[in-house]
User: Fold this.
Amino acid sequence: MIIPGLGHATVAGSDRLESWLTQVPLEIWLAGFLALYMAWGIGANDVANAMGTSVGSGALTLRGAIIVAATLEFSGAFLAGGHVTDTVRKGMLDMDKVALSPDLLVYGMLAALAAAATLLLIASFRGLPISTTHSIVGAIIGFGTVAFGVDAVAWGKVIQIVLSWITSPLLGGVLAFLIFRLIRRLILNHSEPTAQARIYGPWFFFLVFFIIGLVTLFKGLKNLHLDFDLQTSFLLSVGLGVVGLALGTLFVRRVATVASAVDEDGSSSRGVERVFVVLQILTACAVAFAHGSNDVANSIGPLAAVVNSEQGADLVRKSAVAPWMLALGGVGIVFGLATWGYRVMETVGRKITELTPSRGFAAELAAAMTIVLASRLGIPVSTTHILVGGVLGVGLARGIGALDLRVVGQVLVSWVATVPLAAVLSIGFFYLIKAILSS
Amino acid sequence: MSVIGNLFGHSPVRPMQRHMEAAVNCAREVLPLIDAMESGDRTEIAACRKRIDDLEHEADDIKNEIRSHLPQRLFMAMERRDLLEILNRQDSIADVAQDVAEIVDLRGMKIPATLVQPLRALAVHSVKTCEKAEQAIQQLDELVETGFGKREVGRVEEMLSALALLESETDDLADTCLRALFAIEDELGVATYFWYELIGWVGKMSDHAEAVGNRIRLLIAD
Assistant:
């Protein structure tokens, strides 16, 4: 942990360290512990959903997926995780009302973390598809209503978030549908699909680098004290896109020669899929980055709220989330991935061999764009649901042999049930924690 | 926990292709059966029938497997109804081939010399029609892989046109065969009826093959 002060403490000797440790209030330790656990859970479970598609289609080996996921989940969390974290930290409650009794916010956020962590435990043991995003949003609404009153919940923001849970999978689906149709038109339908893939493939690199660049750079890196205006962001993103284009050309050229050889065996689609294997490595990276940028908030948002009110920071004013917290979340996610997530990833990967690289590419590209957009807008969304939307979009374009629509029902049930459940749990924990800590 | 993992159902495409392979293999066995009839080899006839029976059972197993894996909630690149209809027609190819073998074996059919050539011509062509349908079915995976792209659809459409042509040629050959049969109906007596049925069945194999093709046409219609 890169906690400010810790560095000085170790230099100055163990006495200073000890005094520093005792200075940190119990609440922060508790919140830190719970947040780490949440981040661990996100790494253990959710990353598998995001990356399993790449493992399943053979675009990445399990090892490769772990390395990609670890690197880009952390980058996403650290570089672009601030906006959603801000929303979770202070966007869903009326901070003017909260500022009157900051202690209650501390208890409440602890309760929210405890509630979400409990649901995560239940979900892991019972194999239920519970989204951490939905848990944490439900939990904050829950304690908010009892701690500060129904009026203190920023219902406008809450409704915006809940609506985004419907619109974001839809957007992911529509984008995936269009991307797949475009791929079919430009590449698969062509008499020499591999050659076409070699031409258009690198432009997809440009697109991904450009979009992620623009979304991340434009007023997005305040955590790092970098504030670009639209024009600078745009130019820098074009630069990034060109880097992507160059990288893409290099990558695709190397595979395309092998793929052309495969084409001559007769089957036209096998060779072109090899090109998409490479392209899908890119979208896997994009999804991991996007996932990190959105989901880190589920663990770090409440922690940031607790730390800020304990340190007496002005809650109303826009104080940014400290980079060390985002880093902590990133580390937690990577840790969860390394200790448990790879197993889930392997299982998911084995189940979805139906997904060929071109389909995985379309679904992941659509999902990554949707999630990064949501992250930039500071809206906590479910990565998994958006990816489901993306895959269904490809399915609607007749790209996938068979999809089990039961999952759509599961998704609906999961978020209709998770929010109230998390709210009730969080209310319970709130009274419990308040009773213990305020005495 | 894994929503994504549960999202993918078993695609029926590969089993459909295996089913068609088994069904068309049944049809192919009709050719050695005719040879065995011609040489009057009862043990070879029984062996042919055994092979057809085994293949038909194999097809039945695959058919049941496909049906039990096609629940309503499955969202597929191909209409469920069309797939089930294709499956039925594929199955009929095997069934009809089995009927032919059964009657030849049970009744100890001895083929009149004037029927050998027309019947063999009919059978060869009928099998060819089935093989054309099989060829189209073998493109189903390629169709899904290209997302029903124009080029691939065009290729399958060509196969279907060839299939339709083969079927109408088979009809003509069946006419020739029946004419040869009716020319000797007085000598054959009651056997005429059984030959009439048998020739009908051999021709039916190609009818079912064409029906498979017609349903594929619906599948690829945009």
Strands of chain B lie at 74-76. The first strand of chain B starts at residue 74 and ends at 76.
